[in-house]
Design brief:
20-stranded antiparallel beta sheet, Immunoglobulin-like, 41 strands
Amino acid sequence: MANKIYGLLIFIFTASVVFAQNAGLKGQIIDKKTKEPLSGAYVHFDDKKGGAITDAFGQYFISNVLPGFYKVKVKYSGYEQFKAEIELTVNSTSKLNIELSEKVESIETVNIYSKANTESETSSRRSEKNAANITNVLSAQAMQRSPDINAANALQRVSAVTLQRNSGSDEAYAIIRGLEPRYNNTLINGVKVASPDPASRFISLSIVPSDLLEKIEVSKSLTPQMEGDAIGGTVNLVFKDAPETQYFKVNGSLGYSAIFFNRKFDEFSHGAVQTKSVTEKFGAGYTAHPGNFSRANLDFVKKNAPLTSLLGFTYGHRYFKNKLGFIIADSYQNQYYGTNSQFNIAQLDSRPGKGYQPVISDVANRTYSTQQLNNGLSAHIDYRFNDKNKIGLDNVFLYTYIAQSRLSIDTSIIGGNGGRVGPGTGAVFNDNRSGIQEQSVENLKLHGTHVLSNHLLFDWAGVYSNAIQKSPDRAQVSTNKLINPDFSSTPDYLYAVSRIWQKSGNKDVSVLANLAYKTGLGKGSSIEIKAGGLYRHSTRYNSQNEYKLRPTPTATGGKSPFIDIYSVDWLVYNVTGSLASDKANYTAYENIAAGYGQVKIALNNFDITGGLRVEGTEQGYDTHPVVLDIRSNAKKTYTDALPSIQLKFKLTDKSNIRASYFKSISRPALYELVPTPTFGESTDVTGNLDVKHSVADNYDIRYELFPKNEEQLFIGAFYKNITNPIEFALTSLVSGQANTSPQNFGTAKVTSAEIVYSKYFGKIGLSGNYTYTYSKISTTKIYTSTDASGGVTSPITAVKLQSRPLQGQTGNVVNVSLLYKNDH
């Protein structure tokens, strides 16, 4: 026993001595010219594993290194590589401060493997400064410093960007430069992604966890190599790339939604939601009966504020002498939130002396309680054959589960069941709804980059994108009662129950390739000639099946009072459902073929990038053959030539002036072409095959100043002239439910000014932006009135021209943030 203890003591002593004899290296890396710290520089020893990446202050520390002589190397994109020999001594930490010189890129050759920490704020400012077009970049580092948990939250910190809410009342879709989401597009790693939303071309940004992202790029002007369907701008979500050193990160948080401190969360049984409709369970032609429909999902229970939880991890590494790299990241978010809102129903007031003026006829007070579970998984792997050839595979999977209850009390202000004679009287409807919505998006991209010669670079990609949305068993129960003039009330009676199963899907297959030739022109100037093309085949389908339930009449033909959802009797009104004849069932497709030519000339203090892009589009649909009052199938084609020119004047090393012109388009969503109704929250939409795509001429100017690595000042303005803007026009109003259709309305003009500012005072920073946008469009409106005497019994209508802003246009946008950085 004594020998064992003695041996153990020797081992501990020896290990302690060895550990104590280790050495270390620390220091700071700065720009040789500006003396600014460089964040994200990679410091390592030659032919040795390990190393360090500099923090926000340019500082690094490498510990537990055996004493001896080492070759130190530093890599940082845009700078010359640093090499030095240093001796590390026993029991000490040596200090090595390094100044890096900015790299002057070779104008004679092309290269592809300059690698840096592109997640830093310094890298984002450099990208904005060097970009050929007008761009804003939001780095992963900026998102980490903020409380933003998804891409939608984070985007609000970009100038001229606001968010439109989705059906779950969460911020979801980007409004860029005051233009609604239809005028913008969303990319994943540079390529458009399929959308699970049947009513749009874009994904909900709220389902993209911010901790999966390397950066977000918002392009406000387009070069010929970029897809042309973006009038407002393009949002490119860049997911994490394989790191140069081993990387591991875990994050988590807990919290509550403050709204549920003032009211309860309305919960229903998720297990009672039937994932398959009666038709799917028992086959077409089956006669449904009342027992086929669950009830617990219409039983709403009050619950105290539920706990919100977030958890994520990221791991990446490189192997085989840095040839093979991979990274995997997962993020889980379980959130609870709610909204309180009021929905007003309007109609023409036909009461004597009211002159048929618009009046609110019903007021619905609505409370929403929503659980949203997001799970995002991102994986990347790449292989470097040599310094001239690299291939990679990216896979992004996004999943969201939304369970929402909506409790609505609808009070008639005028008219109604029995009439309203004063405040607190008249018909009162309770419309309570439960629903679950699942969305999934998978995007798989295989890509490669190849240096064919000293002047020639070729890159390619093949992308498969699949998006699905399921809304099984959306259930709504409506009850009503009448409050009499003496404030006595009838019992609640069952009015109607509806059950809807809906499913939609979108698949995209894309192939693209680019070939670039670069050579010098002498005296520090160069020219790059680039050409490429893209082909995309996209398909979409929508399937819907609705069952309508009605109360069982009493023996005398009346209604039984509504006590609760479990005791009420109902009958199935349409026993076979609507699947066989529902107008909302359709398939649609879109084929896009595009090619471009682009030239970039870089002089000492002036860059010019320009060229032409041509895009051909074919769109079509097939709907249910039973629907006889519409065209059951149709297609349309069109071609657009989209010129672009970008000018950049380099005033100093820290400032630019940019000016640009580009032509772009906005295609209608596929569902907007199908002449069948799609049911919404309060508005139904019927498609219009004759609606034309929008075409815009876009003009931009911007002054840029980059005082320090993480600081900026942008002042800019733009003007857009949009031909055939797509606006929704009211076609009918039935029982307060509006039916609209997409239409073209002449020409719209949009002007704007914006300013962006960020400044750090030590560790404390101030960031803000302001955008003013003015838009004008003239459309025809129907005005209703009486004659001069007011004595007519029917309205007089007249068509007049009205000038107004574009639908969904945001006039003023302000965002101010107080920041703290301590990235040690």
